[in-house]
Amino acid sequence: MAQNKKTEFPEKIQRIASFTKLLSHPARLAILEVLAQKQTCVCGEIVEILPLAQSTVSQHLKELKDGGLVKGEVEGTSSCYCIHWENLNLAYREFSDQMQMIENFKNQKGGSCCE
């Protein structure tokens, strides 16, 4: 049986991988964009704006919430969501720092082996 080797990597790299996986679906990026534009808790409006079914939006919101990029509260039969800015900014900084480190390695070596 194959073993999952994710835990063999540093926690920071695991967090960055989870962050990029969350952003790997266009619907989740579009949902974050809607939430950012509204700058308030958004309930059913996302379904009216995006070409997605309610169940699809709900599933993507659940993924974003589970990943810590979105906060949400249930109010009766509806749920309201907003971006968890602190978590999003932290994840973005870690991702940017990692990409910069990779770029620095390239610059230290004078380019890519494939160029």
Automatic annotation (TrEMBL):
SMART domains cross-referenced by the UniProt entry: HTH_ARSR
Domain HTH arsR-type: 8-103
PROSITE patterns tied to this protein: HTH_ARSR_2
Keywords on record: DNA-binding, Transcription, Transcription regulation
Domain of life: Bacteria
Pfam families documented for this protein: HTH_20
Keyword match Aminoacyl-tRNA synthetase: no
Keyword Transcription: yes
A GO molecular-function descriptor: DNA-binding transcription factor activity
InterPro entries: ArsR-like_HTH, HTH_ArsR_DNA-bd_dom, HTH_MetalResp_TranReg, WH-like_DNA-bd_sf, WH_DNA-bd_sf
NCBIfam families attached to this UniProt entry: HTH_metalloreg
Entries under PANTHER family matching the protein: REGULATORY PROTEIN ARSR (PTHR33154:SF15), TRANSCRIPTIONAL REGULATOR, ARSR FAMILY (PTHR33154)
Listed name of the protein: ArsR family transcriptional regulator
Organism (species): Leptospira kanakyensis
Organism placement in taxonomy: Bacteria, Pseudomonadati, Spirochaetota, Spirochaetia, Leptospirales
